[in-house]
Amino acid sequence: MKIVLAEKVSPATLAVFQQEPGWVVVTHDQIKNGLAAELADADALVVRSAVQVDDALLESAPKVRVIGRAGVGVDNIDADAATRRGMVVMNTPGANAVAVAELTIGLMLALGRQLPKANIGMHAGKWEKKSLNGSELRGKTLGILGLGRVGLEVAKRARVFGMELIGHDPYVSAAVAREAAIKLVSVEDLFKEADYLTLHVGLTPQTAGIINEASIATMKKGVRIVNCARGELIIDEALLEALKSDKVAGAALDVFREEPPKDSPFTSFENVILTPHIAGSTAEAQEAVGIQIAMQVREYLKHGVVQNAVNLPSLSHEEYQEVAPYLEMAERLGTFLGHSLQGNIESIDLTYSGRLAEAKTDLVRNAAIQGILSHSEAVNRINAASVAQERGIRVHEEKDSAAIGGAGSVLKIVLHTNAVEASASATVLHGNSPRLLNLDGIDIEAPLQGTLLSLRNLDVPGVIGRIGTILGEHNVNIANFALGRSVRSKHVPQGSALAVVQVDGNVTTKLLEALRSADGIVQAGVVTLNEA
Predict the structure, then answer these.
(1) Rounded to the nearest 5 degrees, what angle is found at the Cα of 68, between the Cα atoms of 63 and 71?
(2) How do residues 511-522 score in pLDDT, each as one tens digit?
(3) What long-range pairs does 15-19 form, CB within 8 A, spacing at least 24?
(4) Rounded CA gap, 379 and 374, in Å?
(5) Nearest Cα to 292, choosing from 13, 28, 49, 501?
(6) How confident is the model at residue 532 (pLDDT cuts 50, 70, 90)?
(7) Catalytic pick from 230, 298, 339, 381?
(8) Which residues, in sequence order, are bridge partners of residue 272?
(9) Catalytic pick from 59, 237, 259, 513?
C-alpha cells in the first residue's frame, strides 16, 4: 500500500501507517515532483484543509481508493468526483468535539462578562470597572441547535454552570436528550426561549440562513448568539441590524461565509467577538483528528470497513462485521442474476428479510448493484448507486423483518428490463457460505461460488442424464448439482425446471453449444464467481 500525506501531520498519525509492514508512506515534505505525480500509484490520500482535491487531481490518481480528511469540513474535496471514481471520502467528525465545546463555553463567558472590552481597556491603561457590569451564565436558558457530538459536549459543560438546557435536533432520540438533561423543543420554541443560542449543525438546504430576520424577530430581546459551526447558517445583514437595535445583545463568530472575511462590518461592534475559525485548533484536537483519520484509512484499506464517510453511509466495526458476509453474497447474487440478462435494465428491486432487514443495508445494496453491473463497466461498492443513477436505473428497496423459511436473513433481487423480469434470492449459511435459494420463483439451493452453469430445461425424463453425459464428454467434473422445478399447470403441462451446476475446470464455447443443442434444454449459460 502507498499512502500520500499531502499536508503536515503529527508523528503519532504517521506512526499508524508506519506500523503496517510493507506500506509506503510519503509525507508532504517528500513530495518533489508535484502531488499529481505522487498519486499516480497511490492507494490513499490524506489531507487537511489546504490541499484542493478537485476533479483534475483525482484524474491523476487511478488507484486511490480512499481520501481521508483530518477534520470535519470537506469543502476542499470534490466528493462527487471521488464517488464517480469509486473512492471513499472520510472525515473525522467529533474528534475535535471537546475543543469546539470548550471554545463555545469560553465565548459565552466572554460575551456575558465583556472580556474583550475589559482586556482592550486595560491594555490602553483604562480602568473602566463600572461600565463592565456583566451577567452570569447561571440560571440562563441555553438553546442548542444541533445535538451531535459537539452539541452534547457543550450541554455537558453548560450544565455545570447551572444553565437550563433546551435543544432541537430531529435526528437525536428523546433518550439521548433526556440523559443529557436537555429539553427537546421545536426550532421555533428554541429561538423564542433561549438567552444564549449556540449553533452546532451542518450546512444543508434546511439550515442555510436559519438565523435570519424572521427567526431573530421571534427571539428574546438581549439574546446572545454563538456560531462555531458554519458561517452560512447566519444571514449577516439580519444579525447586523439586530445588533444595531440591541435585539441581539452580543454575538461570537468563529466561522464566516467568506474566510478570511474582508472588510467585515462586525469589526465595528464592541459586543461582537470574532475569532479566526479556531474552534478545533488545539494541540490535543489536531492530534486526535490526525490519529483518527489514519486509523479509519488503515481499517478501510485492510478490512474494507467504512467509517465516517461523507459519500457513503458509515458502519462501525461491529456493524460491518454483521453485514460483511452479506456483502459478498449480494455481489455474487447480482453477478449470477445479471450475467445473461436480456434487454436493458430499467429498475432493480431489493428486498431484505430477517435479521438483515434490521441492519444498515446501504453497502449491501451497493454490492448487489456492483454485481449486476459488473459485466458492463468498472463499478465498485462506493460508486455503484451513483453509476446506476447515471444510467437511469431506478433502485427500490424494501425491508421485512420476518424470516423466510428457515433462513435467518435473505436478500431478494428482482431485475426489470425492457424485455424480461428476472428474480433470485439468497442467504448466507454458516457465516461464510453464500447460497442461492430461489431463481425466478423456483426453489433451488446451490452454492454461489466458483464456476456455475445455469440451465433451464423442460421437466421431462432424461435431461439430467444428458447434462452429465455432455459434461463428461468435455472432461468437466461436476462439483455440485442443484435442481428445481416449477409447479405444473394446465398452461404448462410439461412444466419447467432449472439446474445450477457447479463444475471444476473451464467451460468452453463448444461445451455450451453442446448443452444448448441437447434435447429438452432451453437455455444454458455460465458465470464464474469469486472463490470464498
Answers:
(1) 165
(2) 999 999 999 999
(3) 16/291, 16/294, 16/295, 16/298, 17/294, 17/297, 17/298
(4) 6
(5) 13
(6) very low
(7) 230
(8) 251
(9) 259
Which pTM was predicted? 0.61
Q: Where are the extended beta strands (E) located within 31-112?
A: 44-47, 66-69, 88-90
pLDDT at residue 531 in the model = 58
Residue 380 CA neighbour count, 13 Å, CB half: 14
Compute the CA torsion angle 40, 42, 48, 49 (nearest 10 deg): 20
Greater model confidence, 169 or 17: 17
Which pLDDT does position 492 carry in this prediction? 43
The contacts found for 20-25 with CB under 8 angstroms, 24 or more apart, are: 20/298, 20/302
Q: Which residue has the cell 490524506?
A: 46
299 counts as catalytic: no
DSSP 234: B
| Closest to 330 in 3D by CA, of 374, 391, 274, 264 | 374
Q: pLDDT of 244-294, one tens digit each?
A: 999 999 999 999 999 999 999 999 999 999 999 999 889 899 899 999 999
**Can you give the length of the chain in residues?**
532
pLDDT tens sequence across 341-379: 777 788 999 999 998 998 889 889 999 998 988 765 557
Q: Exposure of 526 by Cβ count < 10 A (0-12 exposed, 13-18 middle, 19+ buried)?
A: buried
**Which residue among the candidates 149, 157, 277, 466 is catalytic per the annotation?**
277
> The C-alpha cell of 351 is what?
428486498
Q: Is 230 a catalytic residue?
A: yes
Domains of the chain listed by start with CATH number: 2-93+285-303 (3.40.50.720), 97-274 (3.40.50.720), 315-448 (3.30.1330.90), 449-532 (3.30.70.260)
Answer yes or no: 396 catalytic: no
Type and span of the H or E element at 496? strand 496-504
CB-based contacts of 255, cutoff 8 Å, min separation 6: 227, 228, 229, 230, 231, 277, 279
Sign (positive or negative) of CA dihedral 286, 287, 288, 293: positive
Residue 468 pLDDT more than 90? Answer: yes
Return the DSSP state at 382: T
